[in-house]
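Lecture 7 notes: from sequence to structure.

We start with a single chain of 235 residues. Read the sequence below before looking at the structure.
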Amino acid sequence: MKSAWVVRHVAFEGLGIFAEVLAQRGYSVRMLEAPVADLDDLDAGEPDLLVVLGGPIGAFDEAAYPYLGEVLRLVEQRLASGGKLLGVCLGAQLIARAMGAQVKPMGVKEIGYWPLTLTAEGRASVLAPLHASIPVLHWHGDQFEIPPGATHLAASAICPHQAFAVGDAVLALQFHLEADPRQIEAWLVGHAAELHGAGIDPRALRRQAAELRAGEVLLCQQLFADWLDLPADPA
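Now the structure, written as tokens:
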């Protein structure tokens, strides 16, 4: 049985629709609740897959949240191992940081369901199915620069750096492809203060989530499955 370690920062930002894909692919999942877990002695090269999920803090916030330094160490260790690594939102920003790229505030919040614009390289990647105006969930105020040696895959109207890859081993997504629209209420409650501060009505997000079609969710699951099936052969 293949193994997947999942670094989770807050309970409601979990694997979402990706959990079913991992189960179908025969992965055993170890959930690491990063803020309270003992990460010091873990070897990030051990599992077949490492996933680092999103959270409501910044990629350089370890002075305020010391556990983040342990997560960064896992990311650095995983990059050195050459194994499969998926980063989502904060997870993607930590990958960018570990690779020497900047992560900084955009000056505006990007929160809601909108499509992406794929680069030429993105249209030739596993993200290609997203080119046809497929809405995905955006929920962030920071963005990463594209690290040296990485391939820029996607942008949005607000955020020019939405995804990058390093060969077929590393995939970093600023957006939340994993988010289950049927579980959006947990996000709305968990991020209620942020929504209020940004002047965003949760009812609008709830409507957007309800408008997603089952086929679009299945497409996102298939995209993740296709990436899993690529050999971990970093460029």
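DSSP finds eight helices and ten strands in the chain. Keep this in mind for problem set 3.
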